[in-house]
Amino acid sequence: MSDKKTPLHDEHVALGAHLTEFGGWEMPLRYTSDLAEHRAVREAAGLFDLSHMGDIEVTGPDAAAFLDHALVGAISKVGLLRARYTMICADDGGVLDDLIVYRTGDTEYFVVANAANTDLVLGELEQRARGAGGAAAFDVEIAAVPTALIAVQGPRAEEILRATDGFDESATDPAASGGTLADLRYYACAPMTFAGEPVVVGRTGYTGEDGFEVWVAPHLAVRLWRALLAAGEPFGLVPAGLSARDSLRLEAGMPLYGHELDTTTTPFEAGLGRVVKFDKVSGDGAPVAFTGRAALESRAGSEPARVLVGLRGQGRRPARAGYDVVLRGAAGAAGAKVGTVTSGAPSPTLGYPVAMAYVTPEVSAEGTELAVDVRGRAEPFVVVPLPFYRRPGK
């Protein structure tokens, strides 16, 4: 087990969680059953400890221009109290991490990195802020921020957060906060309060459901966790671990770093070329020479060697990460290899196996019948659009 523990570690132990190492942290894998926790999020709500995620503040007069330079997205176009999904890439276009960037002030940004990549992202940002000879090229300050992050995900999330003792959604200036929880748009954030202290609430998520993330000072994490559990019990809220989080994000077709994304993969191969903004310009009107631009421009106009697709199982045996995708031969026999599964599992919501995989372009069309080599047996799958699941009304 890792020696890194979140402020909620003792709460997980008290709830009987099965703990595992993830991204260098000791985290709850499950509390009861994967299926029960998954279904609770789809039908009511789940409570997640996300305090292992990396939180990095970028502030200063050049913060927007710097993030345009360091990341592939047009961060300078993000409105106040809005958020943007983006990536930090290497010079060759490979993805170092996928990120969410929140603009929390006129010159203040909050970068959320994956737990295992936090040190890498922090180091890259610090390096990219420097110019030739190590001099500061951008007037910015970059710092990791110790904080706790608790998420409530599911169709009852808004009701639960509003019913939580000590939580006040309207405690700050409405002009600054954007109003109440109901007013908070998707991929936006707002300053609110809990127990009389400031928190930041974001309406983003990684489950395919509506929900909120609450950034709170570490010393308040236990109190907020317990208050949410108490408020959520009548609504069907349960604590949920990494296993349910993974199956939920898979159904929603959301990539996981280390599976669908890594340093050998560009955003275009992952079907996320939309996050790369070649049209962003600097203050003098010149194109922004962001890190990886040249390599990504060369990839943008050419067919990738592999394409990320969704696969729906036509049998009962699930595909798993690392399994070979093969042509479907006669009488169910396995043909030539055409790809590799990146994530796969039975879908509790849909009732059949689902997977994401990189395959060659010629077999990537919707409806293409393929197979996955599951322990020596060719299991039938068909290419389908992503995501596999959309919440009602979306």
Considering the chains and any ligands shown, give keywords for the structure.
single chain; 394 residues; alpha+beta; Gyrase A, domain 2; Elongation Factor Tu (Ef-tu), domain 3; 9 helices; Aminomethyltransferase; GcvT/YgfZ_C; aminotransferase; EC 2.1.2.10
- Major β-sheet, in short? 7 strands, mixed
Residue runs with pLDDT of under 50 for 5 or more positions: none
Q: Please tell me what the overall shape is.
A: globular
Instruction: Give the strand line-up of the largest sheet.
Output: 11-12-13-14-10-4-15
What's the total helix number?
Answer: 9
Structural class: alpha+beta
By CATH, the superfamily of one domain comes out as Probable tRNA modification gtpase trme, domain 1
The third-level CATH topology of one domain is Gyrase A, domain 2
What's the short version?
This is Aminomethyltransferase. Helix content is 19%, strand content 32%.
Description:
The longest helix has 12 residues, at 221-232. The model has no long low-confidence stretch (mean pLDDT 94). Among the domains are: 4-51 and 147-251, Probable tRNA modification gtpase trme, domain 1 (Gyrase A, domain 2, 2-Layer Sandwich); 307-384, Aminomethyltransferase beta-barrel domains (Elongation Factor Tu (Ef-tu), domain 3, Beta Barrel), CATH 2.40.30. Helix 2 packs across helix 8 (242-251). Helix content is 19%, strand content 32%. With 394 residues, the chain is of the alpha+beta class. The chain starts with a strand and ends in a 10-residue tail after the last strand. It has nine helices and 21 strands. The protein has a seven-stranded mixed beta sheet with strand order 11-12-13-14-10-4-15, sandwiched between helices. Strands 16-19-18-17-20-21 form a six-stranded antiparallel barrel. Strands 6-7-8-5-9 form a five-stranded antiparallel beta sheet, with helices on one face. The chain has helices at residues 9-14, 34-43, 63-70, 118-128, 157-163, 174-177, 221-232, 242-251, 293-300; strands spanning 4-5, 18-22, 25-30, 45-49, 54-59, 83-89, 95-105, 108-113, 141-144, 148-153, 167-168, 189-194, 197-202, 211-216, 237-239, 307-313, 324-328, 334-346, 353-359, 369-374, 377-384.
